[in-house]
Amino acid sequence: MRLEGVFARYGRRDAWVLQNVDGEVRQGDTIVITGRNGAGKSTLLRVLAGLLPVGRGKVRDRPDIVGWVPERFPTAQPFAVLAYLQGIARVQGLSQSLAQKTIDAWGERFFLTPFFATPLEELSKGTARKVGLIQALLNPPQLLVMDEPWEGLDAQSQAELPAVVEELTKNGGSCVLTDHRGRAADLGDVRHWQVHQGVLKEEDAPAPQEDAEHHVIEIVVRTDEVGTTVEWLREAGYDVHGTRERR
């Protein structure tokens, strides 16, 4: 898949968000896109996924099957989790039996099975993110595009993502993602694209930075609030090292 002189924006009179972008995604690639907020990272992902048409330039040889994982999965839909995934599987052409087998397998892998009967609108951000991941993987994508895929996930699901990416790329697929939390280091051999003011350049692996000073704090909550508090903290970007009963 190649980008050739791509310009992109959201409205005819808007400024260009991407400007004269050239790039190639090859089979087996894992590409991590970095850049400041507003630089155009998410716009580039949408162009790669085919969700945003380009204003100038060309996108050539986009794979037939593209999996798209948005940063925030849209939960304002009148479906329970299982019904939604079954519907997506039908749209993607999976038979009923294969669809259910695939949904069950991914549900177990991402610890989503207990939520199959839960309406989408009642899901937390992290659980909704799991639905977004699974719907993108039901029909094995040739290109998987993910916007901040670790954000909001529980520790077990975060640890599962590198294995998913490795399996995809070993089978000839490609993966392009953004990652502001530095978790892409778990993905092994990756390429790095940096977007700055709408311009793309490929770079070597970013130089390791000295760790910023960190502090460990403890908070005390009621027993029935532990789960929701841990989830809120993770969604806010904090690392939760564990919980224990207060003695």
Fold blueprint:
Blueprint lengths: L1 E7 L9 E7 L5 E5 L6 H9 L6 E5 L5 E4 L11 H11 L4 H14 L15 H13 L5 E4 L8 H16 L3 E5 L12 E6 L2 E5 L22 H10 L12
Parallel strand pairs: 3-7, 3-8, 5-6, 6-7
Antiparallel strand pairs: 1-2, 1-4, 8-9
Helix pairs in contact: 2-3
GO molecular function: ATP binding
Membrane topology: Peripheral membrane protein
Protein name: ATP-binding cassette domain-containing protein
Write up this protein.
By secondary structure, the protein is α/β, with parallel strands linked by helices. It has helices at residues 41-49, 81-91, 96-109, 125-137, 155-170, 226-235, and strands at 2-8, 18-24, 30-34, 56-60, 66-69, 143-146, 174-178, 191-196, 199-203. Helix content is 30%, strand content 19%. The strands form 2 sheets. It has a 6-stranded mixed sheet, with helices on both faces. Strands 2-1-4 form a 3-stranded antiparallel sheet, covered by helices on one side. Strand 6 (143-146), helix 5 (155-170) and strand 7 (174-178) form a beta-alpha-beta unit. Helix 2 (81-91) packs across helix 3 (96-109). The longest helix has 16 residues, at 155-170. The termini are far apart.
- Pick out the low-confidence regions: 207-212
Helix content, binned percent: 25-40%
Number of distinct beta strands: 9
Report the C-alpha radius of gyration, rounded. 19 Å
How many structural domains does the protein architecture include? 2
Distance between the termini: 58 Å
Overall pLDDT level: 87
CATH architecture of the largest domain: 3-Layer(aba) Sandwich
**CATH homologous superfamily label of the largest domain:** P-loop containing nucleotide triphosphate hydrolases
Structural class: alpha/beta
What is the topology, as strand order, of the major beta sheet? Answer: 5-6-7-3-8-9
Instruction: Write down the CATH class of the largest domain.
Output: Alpha Beta
Pfam families: ABC_tran (PF00005)
Family: Belongs to the ABC transporter superfamily.
InterPro entries: AAA+_ATPase, ABC_transporter-like_ATP-bd, ABC_transporter_ATP-binding, P-loop_NTPase
Main location: membrane
